[in-house]
Design a protein that fits this description.
This protein is an alpha+beta fold and 114 residues long. The protein has one domain: Winged helix-like DNA-binding domain superfamily/Winged helix DNA-binding domain (Arc Repressor Mutant, subunit A), CATH 1.10.10. 55% of the residues lie in helices and 12% in strands. Strand 2 and strand 3 form a beta hairpin. One of its GO terms (molecular function) is DNA-binding transcription factor activity.
């Protein structure tokens, strides 16, 4: 059962990271905690849309949100990436792929499709 829970958590992290807006938000939060309105500022979308992105990041455990007075603050939770990082490191033998060499390999190994 724990393996299924870990797989689900990993799925949620990767699903959250799949969106470029959410990756941009995480990059912004690397610097410091930010108010939701400040997070939303550089994006050409509604505050409601940003809130949905923040909700997905929160459910994946990548950020936390805290109410301070009238302002909701977002904080990066870098430990949430640990399991994803460990999972990706298991593929370490495939690191540093030279895409040009890979393309040459595919052309040599696969029959001409054209």
């Amino acid at each position: 059962m724990k393996g299924m829970q870990n797989a689900l958590a990993l799925d949620m992290v990767f699903a959250a990271l799949a969106d470029p807006t959410r990756r941009a938000i995480l990059s912004m939060l690397l610097e410091d905690d930010m108010a939701v309105t400040d997070v939303a500022e550089p994006f050409e979308m509604s505050l409601a849309a940003i809130s949905k992105h923040l909700g997905i990041l929160g459910r994946a455990g990548l950020i936390t949100q805290e109410r301070r007075g009238r302002v909701t603050w977002c904080k990066l939770e870098p430990d949430a990436l640990r399991d994803a990082s460990i999972w990706m490191q298991s593929f370490g033998q495939f690191e540093a792929v030279n895409l040009d060499a890979f393309e040459r390999f595919l052309k040599a190994e696969l029959p001409d499709e054209g």
